Amino acid sequence: MTKLEYPPLFRLYELEIKPEKKAEFVALGQRNLSLSIKTEPQTLAMHATHSDEKGLENLIFELYQDTAAQKRHQASPQFQKYATFAKNAIVNRKVVDLIPELLLEKFDFLGKGTPDKITVKLAKLQLEKASVAAFKAAVFSEMHQAIVLEPGVLAMYAATIQNKPDEWIFLEFYQDKQAYAKHRKTPHFKEYIKKTTDLVAKKELLDLTADTLVSQGNLSYERGAFA
């Protein structure tokens, strides 16, 4: 795996778009992401998804090696074209700065599943006070086992909201729906649930539909591992 020593820049963009702009928004977004991952080595991963049936509620996750890498991306011709169109396509925009906690990908993970069958899951958790350390130990163990032992688990990202260590976000990629169902039946997942049930105050689970998923692949980062 490509182990990162320093924390990458991780951001979530929540974008609501106009219905009449959807097709071109998705097409320009796909072009932007696809060209960027090929020509920008320090752009680590970019995942464009939506959470509603009409495809108007968009969630875009971006990972860069650092701030300089993001600035280079934003200066690229493909991003400039996308950004110019997006100004008139977006109704609401929210940027969420994330702190990467644990990022794990299989080698060429997007080549291991049919793109239209890859299952993308998003979980938002609010932890009970003073439970972060115990929760982190349990979930890190579960994620490491899942990525090694389960062929259908393609990638798992865990992050906290900046300045809110009790608020966690998980973005997970599975080969298909069957792989996700199998994951939930594994001993390590059941052990994780057992250990963390009393540590979680609130949980929200979302099924995301993938529009464009791109990654350099084989990413590995664990916060504090190089401290």
UniProtKB/TrEMBL annotation:
Pfam families: ABM. Transmembrane segments: none annotated. It comes from the Bacteria. Residues 9-102, 119-208 form the ABM domain. Keywords: Monooxygenase, Oxidoreductase. SUPFAM superfamilies: Dimeric alpha+beta barrel. GO terms for molecular function: monooxygenase activity. This is Antibiotic biosynthesis monooxygenase. It comes from Ligilactobacillus murinus DSM 20452 = NBRC 14221.
